[in-house]
Design goal:
By secondary structure, this protein is α/β, with parallel strands linked by helices. 34% of the residues lie in helices and 9% in strands. It folds into 2 domains: 149 residues, NADH:ubiquinone oxidoreductase-like, 20kDa subunit (Rossmann fold, 3-Layer(aba) Sandwich); 115 residues, no CATH class. It has a 5-stranded parallel β-sheet with strand order 2-1-3-4-5.
Length: 285
C-alpha cells in the first residue's frame, strides 16, 4: 500500500470508537501549537474538526475510544491495514475506559435497565482497548491525554526520532512541584505510586488522591499498595478494590486488584446495576 508521497507532509487521521471525544478536543486545544501542527501534517480525517472525510491511507492514525460494539471489531482491523503508524489516545483506547467497568457485570442486565428497547442496542459484553485487537505502535494515556505528551509525540514523528515519554510515577511530579503527599499529610488513599505520570499531579495538587487516569506504570506494585491501604485506615477489602476500579481499571495490575479484592459488588455476584461505581470516586470520600 502506498502511503504519503516522498517529500509530502504525513497524512494524519483522527478517528473514534466508544469515547467522549475529550482526547480529540485536547488536540484542538493545543492553541499556539495547533498552527505548527497543521504546517507539518496533512490532516485528512478529523470528525471533531472538519466535515471532510477520508478513508485513508494514513501515515499516522490517532484512535480514540474502546472497542465496544460488533461493528468496531471489523472497523479497527480495516483501519489498521490503512495506516502506517497507529497511535491510541486516552484511557478508553489504551485501557478500555470507564465503560470497561461493565466487564465485571451482567451486560444484558445493564442494557435492559438503561434502555426501553434493549434489543436495538448492539454492544459487546466487554469494552476492550484497541491493543487487544490490532498492533498499536504508540499510545498516549490519560483521561484526557496530556497536551505536552501529544506535542512531544508529534514532534518525534516530524523529526523521525523516538518520542520521549517518561515512565515514572505521579509521585515524582508531586515532588517536583512541591506538593505535600496527601497520603502522608491527610491520610487520603492515592494511586500516585503506581500510576504513570502525565497529568501534572492535578488531583494531589488540589488535595485529592490520584485516581489512576493514566493507568499503571511499568512494574507497578499495585498489590503492595493495596496491602498498605488495608493495613492503614478503616477500609474493607472491597473498599480497597474499589480504589482501583476507575478510568483504567481493566489494565493490569489494576484489573487483578479489582477482581481479587471484590472492587465491584457484581464481581462477587451480589447485584449489578445499583452497585456500579462512578470511577471509584465514592471510595475516596
Amino acid at each position: 500500500m502506498q502511503h504519503g508521497q516522498v517529500g509530502a507532509h504525513p497524512r494524519v487521521g483522527v478517528v473514534k470508537f466508544a469515547s467522549c471525544d475529550g482526547c480529540q478536543l485536547t488536540i484542538l486545544n493545543l492553541e499556539d501549537e495547533l498552527l505548527s501542527v497543521v504546517e507539518h501534517f496533512d490532516i485528512i480525517d478529523f470528525p471533531e474538526a472538519t466535515s471532510a472525510r477520508s478513508a485513508g491511507p494514513y501515515d499516522v492514525l490517532f484512535v480514540e475510544g474502546s472497542v465496544s460494539e460488533p461493528a468496531h471489531l471489523e472497523r479497527i482491523v480495516e483501519l489498521r491495514k490503512r495506516c502506517r503508524t497507529l497511535v491510541t489516545i486516552g484511557a478508553c483506547a489504551t485501557a478500555g475506559g470507564i465503560q470497561a467497568l461493565r466487564n465485571w457485570g451482567d451486560h444484558d442486565a445493564f442494557r435492559a435497565s438503561v434502555y426501553a428497547h434493549p434489543e436495538y442496542i448492539h454492544t459487546l459484553a466487554k469494552s476492550t482497548p484497541i491493543a487487544d485487537h490490532v498492533q498499536v505502535d504508540a499510545e498516549l494515556r490519560g483521561c484526557p491525554i496530556d497536551p505536552g505528551q501529544l506535542v512531544e509525540l508529534l514532534t518525534a514523528l516530524v523529526t523521525g526520532r523516538r518520542p520521549q515519554l517518561i515512565d515514572e510515577a505521579v509521585c515524582m511530579e508531586c515532588k517536583r512541584r512541591g506538593v505535600v503527599c496527601v497520603m502522608v499529610g491527610k491520610g487520603i488513599p492515592c494511586l500516585g505510586q503506581v500510576t504513570q505520570t502525565g497529568c501534572g499531579a492535578i488531583c494531589p495538587r488540589f488535595g485529592r488522591g490520584c485516581y489512576g487516569c493514566f493507568g499503571p506504570r511499568e512494574q507497578a506494585n499495585a498489590a503492595g499498595l493495596a496491602r498498605y491501604f488495608e493495613a492503614v485506615g478503616d477500609r474493607t477489602t472491597e473498599d480497597v478494590g474499589r480504589l482501583f476500579a476507575g478510568f483504567t481499571a481493566y489494565s493490569e495490575p489494576f484489573r487483578s486488584m479489582v477482581s481479587d479484592l471484590g472492587g465491584t459488588r457484581w464481581a462477587r455476584g451480589e447485584g449489578a446495576v445499583e452497585a456500579a461505581p462512578a470511577g471509584g470516586g465514592d471510595a475516596r470520600n
